[in-house]
Amino acid sequence: MPDDSLLVTGSRDAPIILVLAHSAGAPMDSPFMNTIADTIAGDDVRVVRFEFPYMAARRTGGKSGAPDREPILLDSWRSVIARLGDPARLVIGGKSMGGRIASMVADEAGVAGLVCLGYPFHPPGNPARTRVKHLENLRTPALIVQGTRDSFGLPAEVATYKLSKQIRIVWIESGDHSLKPLARSGRTEAQNLSDAIAEVNRFIQRL
Predict the structure, then answer these.
(1) Please, which residues have CB within 8 angstroms of residue 12's CB and are 6 or more apart in sequence?
(2) What is the residue extent of each domain of the chain?
(3) Which CATH class is domain 3-206?
(4) Cα angle at 80 between 40 and 44, to 5 degrees?
(5) What pTM does this model have?
(6) CA–CA dist 203, 141 (Å, integer)
(7) CA triplet 106, 117, 27: central angle to 5 degrees?
(8) For 164-191, how does the pLDDT look when each residue is reduced to its tens digit (9 = 90+)?
(9) Pairwise CA distance, residues 79 & 191, whole Å
(10) Which residues lie across from 50 on neighbouring strands?
């Protein structure tokens, strides 16, 4: 992965690096990812984004292929972490799939923290197929920001999971998988994203 494949926002001298990976269907510079990165990045936090091979290939070949197999996704995360130096400075995570794969390497990499924006606890419409086994004994301090309408994991479903005490889940009112609220909720997407970003900032500051 060449250096120019990383999208860097914020000061290169920042003491903390927040590394974010994209979801299965949208790139690292989607409006959602841009808002998160541009708002969090600053003098204290540098935000680094990258793309998995299949998404990077879409830029050059125009093909809309399926996500890479899990071993490739895991190795992509390991490669980026290794390039960025001291893992104790890193908080890793991302949107949906990007955050899920990060959660699978966080402990082995020894990073400072984990941030998942819309964790895919199960595929929509298939709540029996959970993706939480590795979260039961997670040692890395973690924040999951989840919408209360997220079809990948609703509050009542998530409440039944056995999750590590290192994981804190924050629920964003009326948010879907991208934290967008219903119009009748009285909330706006900007408000929900602002609340999510505030939680991420607090989490990083506590670390």
Answers:
(1) 46
(2) 3-206
(3) alpha beta
(4) 25
(5) 0.95
(6) 9
(7) 95
(8) 999 999 999 999 999 999 999 999 999 9
(9) 35
(10) 21
